[in-house]
């Protein structure tokens, strides 16, 4: 039997029988891991009732020789993020981000930057000092970059003109190719329209210093265009419908 100690964010928790919970975690040292928390439902004392969604914990779990899920042995709270769970809109955003990580990241594939990014946006969401929309734009842009699925927003994919030198104000995003074109080159094609100003802000929020990017004040138009674009682009490249995104759209309406 081997024992591992790491910090972890709870992405998902499901009931398993009358007594146990199965948790999907994103850990700092081993990426995504699913563990079984025995008697967590039967006895509150067992894990002091801290195994809630989005919480950041220090955990110890063990893996045996035989097949079966690793077993959670110890858990202590680092950040409870209770302001997320008591606010339905914050819960909707956090559910979307954690579902993306859960759907896209592979088991035991370590990516410390993904861990820090998720922990950072959850902290800011909990603190409530930043706009939820800006946090979601920031998370999606950076998560896609870390996953190697960044949209190419640097130049028109047809005439190759760099974004800074493009004259027309409207841009068209080609979802299938993951690239952008100026309206002059692609007047009718593409499904998603973005203004040039929005594209520049997306580039900045995706590459700039994280703590400065999160302070960026986006105009309503840029927020609406960016969310519309990313919430189509991201599921398309992940290759799945995301349940939490449906919920988020309902809440926002
Ligand atoms: Zn062009």
Give me the secondary-structure topology.
Elements: E1 2-16, E2 20-27, E3 31-37, H1 44-47, E4 56-63, E5 71-79, H2 82-85, H3 88-104, H4 112-127, H5 132-146, E6 170-174, E7 179-182, E8 192-195, H6 196-207, H7 210-213, H8 220-238, H9 243-252
The structure holds zinc ion.
Zinc ion (ZN) binds next to β7.
Molecular structure report:
With 253 residues, this protein is α+β, with helices and mostly antiparallel strands. The chain is 40% helix and 24% strand. It contains nine helices and eight strands. A hairpin with a 4-residue loop joins strand 6 and strand 7 (179-182). The protein starts with a strand and ends with a helix. Zinc ion binds next to strand 7.
Shape: elongated
- The strand line-up of the biggest sheet is 3-2-1-4-5
Strand content: 15-25%
Class by SSE composition: alpha+beta
Alpha plus pi helix count: 9
Q: Taking all residues together, what is the mean pLDDT? A: 93
Ranges where pLDDT stays below 50 over 5 or more residues in a row are none
Distance between the termini: 50 Å
Report the order of strands and helices. Answer: EEEHEEHHHHEEEHHHH
Biggest sheet record: 5 strands, antiparallel
Count of individual beta strands:
8
Distinct compounds present: zinc ion
The helix content is: 25-40%
Rg measurement, Å: 20 Å
């Amino acid at each position: 039997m081997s024992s591992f100690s790491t910090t972890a964010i709870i992405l998902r928790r499901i009931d398993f029988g009358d007594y146990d919970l199965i948790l999907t975690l994103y850990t700092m040292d081993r990426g995504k891991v699913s563990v079984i928390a025995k008697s967590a439902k039967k006895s509150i004392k067992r894990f002091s009732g801290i195994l809630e969604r989005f919480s950041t914990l220090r955990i110890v779990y063990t893996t045996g020789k035989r097949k079966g899920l690793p077993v959670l042995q110890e858990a202590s709270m680092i950040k409870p993020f209770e302001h997320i769970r008591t606010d339905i809109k914050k819960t909707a955003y956090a559910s979307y981000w954690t579902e993306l990580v859960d759907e896209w990241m592979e088991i035991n594939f370590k990516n410390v930057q993904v861990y820090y990014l998720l922990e950072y946006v959850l902290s800011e969401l909990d603190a409530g000092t930043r706009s939820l929309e800006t946090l979601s734009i920031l998370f999606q842009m950076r998560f896609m970059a870390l996953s190697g699925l960044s949209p190419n927003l640097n130049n028109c994919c047809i005439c190759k003109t760099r974004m800074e030198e493009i004259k027309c104000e409207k841009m068209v995003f080609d979802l299938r190719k993951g690239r952008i074109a100026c309206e002059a080159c692609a007047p009718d094609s593409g499904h998603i329209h973005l203004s040039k100003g929005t594209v520049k802000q997306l580039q900045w929020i995706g590459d700039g210093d994280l703590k400065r990017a999160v302070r960026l004040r986006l105009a309503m138009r840029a927020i609406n265009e960016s969310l519309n674009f990313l919430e189509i682009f991201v599921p398309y490249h992940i290759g799945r419908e995301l349940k939490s995104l449906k919920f988020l759209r309902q809440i926002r309406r």
